[in-house]
Every structure is written in structure tokens, then in C-alpha cells.
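pinned: reference chain
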Amino acid sequence: MEHRMVGESEMIPCPTPKTYRVEDIARILGIGRSSAYNLVKAGHFRTIRIGSSIRISRKSFDEWLEQKEA
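pinned: its C-alpha cells
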């Protein structure tokens, strides 16, 4: 679980996000945004659209990455 500062010395827990943005997976994989979008379009992970935004299931991405690392 992540934490967020409240005031100068108080930390409160923040829930871990259940989704990644395309920019997040590009950063995690060390690839460009275009390549990350290509992975999304190829259907490697479960995605949802919120308006024009794409969100990638954290669980499906993490499982895909673990499989690639094995």
C-alpha cells in the first residue's frame, strides 16, 4: 500500500491503484508510448476505456510481465 503526506509529518495509507495508464506501462517497460499503445492494441492485457482514456488492468499486466520474465 502506498502512503501520502498529510501536513508536515502525518502519513495516511492510499490504496494501490488497480489500473495503469499507457504511460505507466511504457515507463515500466522502458519503451515509448507508441510501442506501449501497440501492446494494448494487440490485446496483451485487459483494458477499459473511460472516455478517451485507456486504463490497463494492473493484475493482467503484472501477470503478462511475470510470464515474459519466466
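why pinned: The chain has one domain: 17-69. The helical segments are 22-29, 33-41, 58-69.
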